[in-house]
């Protein structure tokens, strides 16, 4: 016994026809095919490919055909037929004969016998003349004695009323249109089933297999009565549903519906009946004993000769097996698609998490990955204490942006069930599922009306609390929720997916935390290596250092200002190749070496030569660029003499008091460490150049992080720096100078470190 719980969700309904005639054709033909699929019943005669089924409605009192579908009218050939038409006249128009081609005499025609109230349970006849239905190859099928232009059809018919029955709720008693009607169905037969001559004894076998009147479920309703009640059902309907005629006559057929019948499908049927058009739907119906079955219902309107609606004819077919197979197929496809979607989500999460820049970024990325792909709402909280007593909300995400403001505070999600599971998740490190959350916010927050209102506005349905695990420790909690009307109740399968995602997020958060600790240590190291700018009488100094995006808050760029005992001042800017702790350490060593040599009073060229020798001899760094300039003692007018040497570094820029800009590129030499034994074997050494600097002059040093940008011209970047300096006021303070240069010339993406140093010579007091 099959009940609803074994059938699955409702199946989609079939499309209605575009016209009454086409709908009747489709209703009967579809019902024949569905009937033939039932394993417990014999198969119907094969309907020739492409052929339609002819349907006739006969008025028994007048023996006239009051309704014929399009196929039935076409069988009349080239003779015009106007309804209503007598059965004899229609038979003559269609040239109906027996299989030997002999016309029927008297009441011998199957149609004539049906018109007199007799049941014809399948009988072959021949139709002759133009307009006949071709077989699948387009060639008419002849029988023995028939002409080459004949077609064989299988005639089945039965009366829809018993005029002599009393008190049985028959169609004859309830119909307002006459004493009764009969239904005739003509099925085209294939050549193999028609038989010839001696094979005509096979007709008995076919007749036993294809008793359409007794094996196909038919109903007739009376739309002229209130609520369109059933007026007649055939015995097949009684066997299909378990309801006898005396229980259903006078009742609307909605008694077959039950608690799980698709209301939208019922509404479509109701609308079609109201609009008097044909429709086919698949409904979950219930038999008299309460068992459920999938019922394909085809309903067609029947009109009289004047076009007035007189009845609805319904054909029912049990398609439970077909629907269940289709549901299983769809479920398998849905499972496969869900698995593919999960793999895509996991791959996307892995990609996003591995590129997170810090803890907050990792939390935000996770929340945006799971919403809306997995959840409707997501909160990410990190633990401030190991026991989870206090948490910091790091990220929120919601399908509806308006809900994110509600998620920013913990109150609305503070359902008792969620909080209990959250505490357990922190303690055990296991995920937990809350399949059903309360609808009433007062149940969640009985003492806080505002929080209760916010809870109800979130429309929570189901929740998961998943710990963020990083190297065996619970770092935080992820709370995922579904909402009405989008979401569904979650299952253990969803919990496994959420745990996998949270595991990747936890590892990313833990790595980000370690990275932040390392960055903090590196930043401390960097600041300890860079000097504090000294206060020099008659001179104002400003500097900036920016680390590249691919570095670790440390790098090889440096600047230095060194007042000398004789009143001169040394200034240096350099760049060690690399953007890591090794480069920073090499930079610190090189800066110390340069300071020590400069302190001895040597000229800039020899100072750089000795640095080069030390770099190569002690393997301090692979290579480095540097420029060292020495301001001589201040003169009576406040000016100083500037001597400089350059080892592969961008040329410093000097702006004189008149606003003219000079590029100090008179002397260049190789980078430090670039030429082995430079200055020894070849006898070469770095020279220097000297320029006067009047009071009010501005000297600017910078590293190639401002000019060497991927995809941009270095010379154009240098010219941009120069234009920026030229446009500044002549008395611009060095702090204003470095801020303006960075504001205008800083690249969109900082791939390399930047060191910037500005020195202005003041006028004497």
TrEMBL record:
Residues 277-331 form the PAC domain. Gene3D superfamilies: 3.30.450.40, PAS domain (3.30.450.20), PPM-type phosphatase domain (3.60.40.10). One of its GO terms (molecular function) is phosphatase activity. InterPro entries: Bact_Sigma-Reg, GAF, GAF-like_dom_sf, PAC, PAS, PAS-assoc_C, PAS-like_dom_sf, PPM-type-like_dom_sf. The keyword Secreted does not apply. Residues 230-276 form the PAS domain. The keyword Phosphoprotein does not apply. Keywords: Hydrolase. CDD domains: PAS (cd00130). PANTHER family: STAGE II SPORULATION PROTEIN E (PTHR43156:SF2), STAGE II SPORULATION PROTEIN E-RELATED (PTHR43156). NCBIfam families: sensory_box (TIGR00229). This is PAS domain S-box-containing protein. The lineage of its organism: Bacteria, Bacillati, Actinomycetota, Actinomycetes, Pseudonocardiales.
């Amino acid at each position: 016994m099959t009940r609803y719980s074994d059938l699955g969700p409702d199946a989609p309904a079939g499309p209605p026809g575009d016209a009454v005639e086409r709908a009747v054709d489709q209703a009967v033909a579809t019902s024949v095919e569905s009937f033939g699929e039932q394993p417990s019943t014999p198969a119907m005669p094969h309907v020739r490919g492409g052929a339609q089924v002819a349907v006739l409605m006969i008025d028994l009192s007048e023996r006239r055909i009051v309704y014929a579908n399009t196929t039935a009218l076409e069988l009349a050939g080239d003779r015009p037929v106007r309804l209503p038409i007598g059965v004899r006249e229609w038979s003559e128009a269609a040239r109906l004969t027996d299989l030997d081609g002999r016309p029927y005499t008297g009441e011998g025609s199957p149609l004539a016998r049906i018109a007199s109230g007799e049941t014809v349970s399948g009988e072959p006849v021949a139709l002759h003349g133009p307009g006949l239905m071709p077989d699948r190859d387009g060639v008419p099928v002849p029988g023995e004695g028939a002409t080459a232009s004949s077609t064989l059809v299988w005639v089945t018919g039965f009366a829809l009323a018993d005029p002599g029955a009393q008190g049985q709720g028959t169609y004859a008693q309830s119909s307002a249109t006459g004493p009764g009607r009969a239904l005739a169905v003509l099925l085209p037969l294939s050549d193999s089933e028609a038989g010839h001559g001696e094979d005509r004894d096979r007709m008995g076998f076919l007749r036993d297999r294809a008793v359409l009147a007794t094996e196909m479920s038919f109903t007739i309703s009376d739309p002229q009565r209130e609520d369109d009640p059933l007026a007649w059902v055939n015995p097949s309907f009684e066997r299909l549903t378990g309801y006898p005629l005396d229980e259903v006559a006078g009742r609307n057929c909605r008694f077959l519906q039950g608690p799980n019948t698709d209301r939208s499908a019922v509404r479509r049927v109701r609308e079609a009946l109201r609009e008097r058009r044909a429709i086919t739907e698949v409904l979950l119906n219930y038999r008299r004993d309460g068992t459920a079955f999938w019922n394909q219902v085809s309903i067609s309107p029947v009109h009289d000769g004047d076009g007035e609606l007189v009845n609805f004819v319904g054909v029912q077919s049990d398609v439970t097996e077909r629907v269940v197979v289709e549901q299983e197929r769809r479920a398998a496809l849905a499972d496969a698609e869900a698995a593919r979607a999960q793999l895509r989500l996991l791959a996307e999460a892995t990609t996003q998490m591995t590129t997170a820049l810090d803890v907050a970024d990792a939390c935000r990325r996770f929340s945006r990955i799971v919403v809306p792909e997995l959840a409707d709402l997501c909160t990410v909280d990190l633990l401030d204490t190991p026991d989870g007593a206090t948490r910091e909300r790091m990220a929120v995400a919601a399908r509806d942006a308006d809900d994110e403001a509600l998620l920013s505070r913990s109150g609305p999600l503070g359902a008792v069930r969620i909080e209990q599971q959250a505490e357990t998740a922190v303690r055990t490190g296991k995920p937990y599922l809350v399949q059903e959350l309360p609808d009433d916010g007062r149940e969640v927050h009985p003492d806080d009306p505002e929080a209760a209102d916010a809870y109800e506005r979130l429309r929570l349905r189901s929740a998961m609390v998943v710990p963020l695990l990083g190297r065996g420790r619970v770092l935080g909690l992820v709370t995922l929720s579904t909402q009405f009307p989008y979401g569904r109740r979650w299952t253990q399968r969803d919990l496994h997916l959420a745990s996998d995602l949270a595991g990747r997020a936890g590892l990313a958060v833990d790595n980000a935390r370690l990275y932040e600790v390392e960055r903090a240590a590196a930043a401390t190291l960097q600041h300890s290596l860079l000097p504090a700018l000294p206060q020099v009488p008659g001179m104002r100094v400003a500097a900036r250092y920016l680390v590249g995006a691919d570095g670790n808050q440390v790098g090889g760029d440096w600047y230095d200002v060194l007042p000398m005992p004789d009143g001169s001042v040394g200034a240096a800017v350099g760049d060690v190749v690399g953007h890591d702790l090794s480069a920073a350490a090499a930079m610190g060593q090189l800066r110390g070496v340069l300071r020590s040599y400069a302190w001895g009073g040597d000229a800039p060229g020899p100072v750089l030569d000795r640095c080069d020798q030390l770099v190569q001899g002690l393997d301090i760094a692979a290579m480095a660029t540097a420029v060292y300039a020495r301001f001589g003692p201040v003169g009576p007018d406040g000016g100083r003499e500037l001597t400089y040497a350059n080892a592969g570094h961008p040329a410093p820029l000097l702006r004189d008091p008149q606003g003219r800009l000079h590029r100090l590129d008179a002397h260049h030499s190789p980078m430090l460490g670039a030429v082995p034994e430079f200055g020894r074997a070849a006898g070469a050494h770095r020279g220097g150049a000297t320029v006067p600097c009047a009071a009010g002059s501005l000297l600017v040093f910078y590293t190639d992080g401002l000019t060497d940008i991927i995809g941009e011209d270095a010379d154009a970047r240098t010219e941009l720096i120069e234009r920026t300096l030229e446009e500044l006021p002549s008395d611009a303070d060095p702090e204003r100078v470095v801020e303006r240069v960075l504001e205008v010339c800083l690249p969109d993406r900082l791939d390399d470190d930047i060191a910037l140093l500005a020195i202005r010579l003041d006028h004497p007091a």
